[in-house]
């Protein structure tokens, strides 16, 4: 299913806002690890520990990789559309040539 490019552009800010506001799974796991380490050492967890920041970085890398894969897939779809259009033009030319051959053969 093809989507309108304008619709995609309109969804980008919404998607980015949603991603920016929510923690990814690696960040959440890092936060839990930081909280457990703080509890084990008897100190208070103040937020944004080392593991949480590392998890956030991993989430960003995963999102960037997913975005890159989406961009590559979009480029391949565009190339497929171009090849399909070229093939359609070539097929139309061949059909016209076939009609001309039949027309010339029918004339005495």
From TrEMBL:
Residues 25-34 have a biased composition (Basic and acidic residues). Transmembrane segments: none annotated. Residues 54-104 form a coiled coil. Residues 23-54 are annotated as: Disordered. Residues 1-17 form the signal peptide. PROSITE patterns: PROKAR_LIPOPROTEIN. Keywords: Coiled coil, Signal. This is DUF4398 domain-containing protein.
């Amino acid at each position: 299913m093809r989507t309108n490019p304008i619709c995609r552009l309109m969804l980008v800010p919404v998607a980015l806002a949603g991603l920016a506001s929510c923690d990814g799974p690696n960040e959440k796991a890092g936060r839990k690890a930081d909280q457990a380490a703080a509890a084990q050492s008897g100190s208070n967890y103040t937020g944004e520990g080392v593991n949480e920041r590392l998890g956030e970085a991993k989430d960003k890398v995963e999102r960037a990789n997913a975005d890159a894969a989406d961009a590559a897939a979009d480029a391949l779809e565009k190339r497929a559309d171009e090849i399909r259009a070229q093939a359609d033009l070539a097929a139309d030319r061949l059909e016209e040539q076939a009609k001309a051959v039949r027309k010339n053969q029918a004339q005495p």
